[in-house]
Amino acid sequence: MTRFWFLLLFVCVSGFAFSFPQSALADTVSDLQAQITANNQRLDTLKAEIAAFQKDLDTLGTKKNTLQSAIGSLTISQKQLATQIQATQNKISSANLEIRRLTLSIGDKEKTITADQAAIAKALRGIAQDEQTPLVAHLISSDSLGDAWRAADNAIQLNRALGDDVADLRSARKQLSDNRDAVTAQKEELLALQSELTVQKRSVDANKAAQQKLLADTKNQEANYQKLIVQKQAAEQALEQELANLSSQLDLIVHPGRLPKVGSGVLSWPFPRSFMNNCAQRKGVFGNIFCITQYFGTTPFSTANPQVYNGKGHNAIDVGAPDGTPILAALSGTVLATGNTDLVSNCYSFGKWIMVEHYNGLSTLYSHLSAIDVTKGQKVSTRQAIGLSGRTGYATGSHLHFGVYATEGTKIMRLGDFRDGVKTGCASAVMPVATLDAYLNPLSYL
């Protein structure tokens, strides 16, 4: 009978006995959680500062396009990027703290499980020994019948206590598994944040380079800036008209039936989700929730339909994006070509550009970039970063010129190779050209 009481007491207090020495560990976990909370509070402050910078940029964007406003916009963007970097560093710190907290919790759970297993195993060995003694033997050896029945009742209580311990053990194992999964998720988030931080630092470099180039091109003179704006706007119209004229010389046939269905949403917006979420909150600035500054074509009808480009108007969409904004592949595919028309003297065109060929008969063009991060023939996945936005080529402000083409009607070639030649200064430039029916409205597939 004494054995039963001992075993019962052992099982009931084992959890308390093994958890008591962990108070120091609990203090450590609590300290880490306090640091995480403080980081989150700091992050809220940084987010408010980023939003305030965005408001300043939006206000500046409503004013006349002058050299002063352009330089001011770049300066505010640099401050906003610096704050975004602080926010990302804050998130990285929190992720590291959370990994440490979870790791300590895992160690705690592993010790608890080991202790519980040992306690249960010892209790089970004791029960096995007692079960070898028949009930009749217990009755004979007991001082009284009451003692014998109390011993039997104690055995029942012991079994119940063991059942509770087994349940606790299962719960501890479940928590251990959850913590390990959480650590894996935190490590993946940490890698993503570190990658984001690298891109943000490159964005700062792109922004500063754009500011320095603008000052150099204009010699910090307003008159030179206005002259440059007029020059680039005229170059844009001239290039679009020239590409439309050259399209008739292409011996290519587009089969509309081989293209994805209009409205199927086969393409993703070529920006991070955070950027698109920000656009959705700035409808009052752009008049739309996508930060579009120029639509496809020239009429509402051409904007709403994919196959009506007639050689007039815009053959893509323009999306306003600060210098250095990550540009993502709209769909998986292969990089058909990359180029930089700015390397050709007196050629105001796409600037730095990338064209990706997709599996479904579409190809996408990304131009006016400040940086290209892929090479010809490289395989890319949907939403993979391929470059940074900028203002190269004929762009008068930082944005992405996003074009969608029917691959069958598209060719990468040197403009000077057309039999009738070209009228602009881009004869030596290599870029995508297409038949008129190969220019598709991006909004029909996004």
Topology (SSEs and partners):
Blueprint: H1 2-19, H2 23-61, H3 67-131, H4 135-141, H5 145-218, H6 222-247, H7 273-280, H8 283-286, E1 292-294, H9 300-304, E2 317-320, E3 326-328, E4 333-340, E5 352-358, E6 362-372, E7 379-380, E8 385-389, E9 399-406, E10 410-414, E11 430-434, E12 439-440
Antiparallel strand pairs: 1-2, 2-9, 3-8, 4-5, 4-7, 5-6, 6-8, 6-9, 9-12, 10-11
Helix pairs in contact: 1-3, 1-5, 2-3, 3-5, 4-5
Q: What would a concise description of this structure say?
A:
With 446 residues, this protein is α+β, with helices and mostly antiparallel strands. The chain has nine helices and twelve strands. The radius of gyration is 34 Å and the shape is globular.
Describe this structure in words.
- This protein is α+β, with helices and mostly antiparallel strands.
- It has 2 domains: 202 residues, no CATH class; 222 residues, Glucose Permease (Domain IIA), CATH 2.70.70.10.
- It is 55% helix and 14% strand.
- It contains 9 helices and 12 strands.
- Helix 4 crosses helix 5.
Which structural traits does this protein have?
446 residues, alpha+beta, Glucose Permease (Domain IIA), 55% helix, disordered N terminus
Order of helices and strands: HHHHHHHHEHEEEEEEEEEEE
Mean pLDDT: 80
CATH architecture of the largest domain: Distorted Sandwich
Oligomeric state:
single chain
Distance between the termini: 78 Å
Principal-axes geometry comes out as globular
CATH class of the largest domain: Mainly Beta
Do you know the CATH topology of the largest domain? Glucose Permease (Domain IIA)
Number of strands: 12
Structural class of the helices, strands and pairings?
Answer: alpha+beta
By DSSP (H or I, 4+ residues per run), the number of helices equals 9
- Domain count, please report it: 2
Poorly predicted ranges: 1-21
CATH superfamily caption of the largest domain: Glucose Permease (Domain IIA)
DSSP strand content: 5-15%
Tell me about the largest β-sheet: 10 strands, antiparallel
Task: Tell me the Rg in angstroms.
Answer: 34 Å
